[in-house]
Amino acid sequence: MAAHRSGPLKQQNKAHKGGRHRGRGSAQRDGKGRLALKTLSKKVRKDLSKVDQRHRASQLRKQKKEAVLAEKRQLGSKDGPPHQVLVVPLHNRISLPEAFRLLQDRDTGTVHLNEWGSTHSFMLLCPRLKHRWFFTSARPGDLHTVLDMAKVADTILFLLDPLEGWDSTGDYCLSCLFAQGLPTYTLAVQGVLGLPLKKQTDVRKKLSKAVEKRFPDNKLLLLDTQQEAGMLLRQLANQKQRHLAFRDRHAYLFAHAADFVPSEENNLVGTLKISGYVRGQALNVNSLLHIIGHGDFQMKQIDAPMDPFPLNPRVIKSPEDPGMAMEICATDAVADMEEDLKVLMKADPDRQESLQTEVIPDPMEGEQTWPTEEELSAANDLLKETSKVVKKVPKGTSSYQAEWILDEDGESGGEGDEYDDIEREDFMEEESQDEGSEKEEEEECETVTIGESVRDDLYDEKVDEEAEEKMLEKYKQERLEEMFPDEVDTPRDVAARIRFQKYRGLKSFRTSPWDPKENLPQDYARIFQFQNFINTRRRIFKEIEEKEAEGAEVGGYVTLHVSEVPVSVVEHFKRGAPLIAFSLLPHEQKMSVLNMVVSRHPGNTEPVKAKEELIFHCGFRRFRASPLFSQHTAADKHKFQRFLTADLALVVTVYAPITFPPASVLLFKQNSNGMHSLIATGHLLSVDPDRMVIKRVVLSGHPFKIFTKMAVVRYMFFNREDVLWFKPVELRTKWGRRGHVKEPLGTHGHMKCSFDGKLKSQDTVLMNLYKRVFPKWTYDPYVPEPVPWVKSEISSAVPEMDVE
């Protein structure tokens, strides 16, 4: 009997666990001298006790609380900028002058009125509350003014109607503001005292319930008396501030005054002096300045005049009468401004940012040398070797005779011609049967005369027939795209190999390789690209947080000298439009390819085709461009979408100046009447020219004869050369079969195809072709002013109540 021998693998049974908790000694014995891995970290992590952990958490809470309180105390104080409040009436029954009259209480503080055209504003100084406010207003129908002033406002005060809340114009305004990003907001109701006493409580409850959908954590305040206006001011002063990401890292300024000094050479261009309070970050004179709606400019110098609206005015004692004192008002401060003028900073030409937006391409950069004689001869030899075909032929056959010998599965030209003749006869028979059935249907129908309305002629006068035809065609194209995505008809007048010569076939759209630097357009030579956009963005943001920026500090009243500004900017300001300036971060003036994720706005259902001109509000910029639409996926290739769909979030690709995310995005479309309709809303995704948008074209054919896994397909191509050209591309069917082209049949584009399974007669054979597409260079920074948005027949937020 042979003895048992143990194998090479030693069995080790699981040891019995003596208990749920082990001591330190047993853990060390089980470790058998092994040490734990060392964690590589720059920060020294110390194990804190529970008491120290609680102490550390309380310190962090205290620091955050102090930071919030310091920010709250800074805003509107004597050292900080005035608390800027934008008043937006959301209903046409709201009386804006009445609201301003209540807020301009002389008992509360000093009021300084200022009026620029249609934009009313005033400064309210309240030493008792140690706060100063700057109130401005904007009507919801004036879309550009509302959006621009909301970008710089600290608080938005929405005025609601007690019965309806807001009308359709106010609802449209709220949609745009929510998409752009709301700062701190407050809701006030005007007109409750005008209602019967019994109805006031019910109206407020019903309004609060309706408003809760848009403003979940709201508190409705009243604005009908001076006492309620005082409570509203206290609420504005003590409210916690909300931050907008796209403006917190920039220095920005709302112009309180502007002066234009024309240049000596040209009166249309000169130096613009903008005066206002610095907000956000410190303003450096060497950085570029973007004036919303007008473009990018350089600064010459920054002056620091005396603050025209001090919280505590200077008191000067008269030398003649020591007992008599006199306060310096705003007008006197402006008069003394030249005397107290102080130059904070002058531009350094070596450190100043350049205004260059595009790369000047060198046409000789991509030049290639002509091939030598040896390279040409080597290429010819390689071509001859690859063109040789090996055939089995009888002995003594010459090379000329071998060219005429067919393969085993080949067919002669005569058979193909006979096949085409048979098919032509069958087609003619089917056509004659169709004509006979149409005649029978016509005999069964009868005509009926219907009278016309007298008012139809008046209605047709208002209809633009050309616009109606274009819109109908777009609706048809969108419907066809939904039913048959990416399918196109093969042209009959142009060969398919010429029409689709820029397209290629892919084995797999997801995994097949595609070089992002291949066949780039000429416009790509004009743009800038980051080696690593994420690292550059992180580095710039870190410098903003850690480094102490030079220049004008936040809260200071300054005058900016902006050079080479057209005179139209100050004319625009004098007509009543707000003048708002943002400082640019490094590289933000340069052109590149921006990718934005947007979703269709539910209030607009018109079809929007790719490469149509749209109006973009991206961060603090406003421009016009023709975008591409593509799917929002995590792959390296993204399928092109011909229309902006309503059910999916798509990526919009466009040429535009570099903007660092996060930034909100609004897409508008200009109608024929001049109004701007909100199309989509979203956010900035990335700045990446290498993001590939791939357009797919699907050619369809129909199985004519089916032999199990083999089939004869027609109507995909219409000549033999096209079949041979696209022979390497894989085929698929709508029912999931895959196959390839075996050979062409005849000269009319029929082809023999083999598939991985039996084909159904009602199936459709498809061929996918792909090419990379690029956006159009139609960037225009100047957007025309929209026609004021008028009220349409849309239901308001709250149904109107019957008030006796």
From TrEMBL:
Ranges of compositional bias, category Basic and acidic residues: 46-55, 65-76
GO molecular-function terms, A-Z: GTP binding; GTPase activity; U3 snoRNA binding
InterPro entries per UniProt: AARP2CN (IPR012948), Bms1/Tsr1 (IPR039761), BMS1_TSR1_C (IPR007034), G_Bms1/Tsr1_dom (IPR030387)
GO terms classed as biological process: endonucleolytic cleavage of tricistronic rRNA transcript (SSU-rRNA, 5.8S rRNA, LSU-rRNA); maturation of SSU-rRNA from tricistronic rRNA transcript (SSU-rRNA, 5.8S rRNA, LSU-rRNA)
One Pfam family named in its UniProt record: Tsr1_G-like
Compositional bias annotation for Basic residues: 13-24
Residues making up the signal peptide according to the UniProt record: none
Keyword check for Nucleus: yes
This protein's GO CC annotations: nucleolus; preribosome, small subunit precursor
Region (Disordered): 1-84
PROSITE patterns: G_BMS1 (PS51714)
Residue ranges constituting the Bms1-type G domain according to the UniProt record: 81-242
Keyword vocabulary terms for this entry: Nucleus, Ribosome biogenesis
Main location class: nucleus
SMART domains: AARP2CN, DUF663
Annotated localization: Nucleus, Nucleolus
PANTHER family associated with the record: PRE-RRNA-PROCESSING PROTEIN TSR1 HOMOLOG (PTHR12858:SF1), RIBOSOME BIOGENESIS PROTEIN (PTHR12858)
Family named by the database record: Belongs to the TRAFAC class translation factor GTPase superfamily. Bms1-like GTPase family. TSR1 subfamily.
Summary of the function given for this chain in its UniProt record: Required during maturation of the 40S ribosomal subunit in the nucleolus.
Identification of the protein by name: Pre-rRNA-processing protein TSR1 homolog
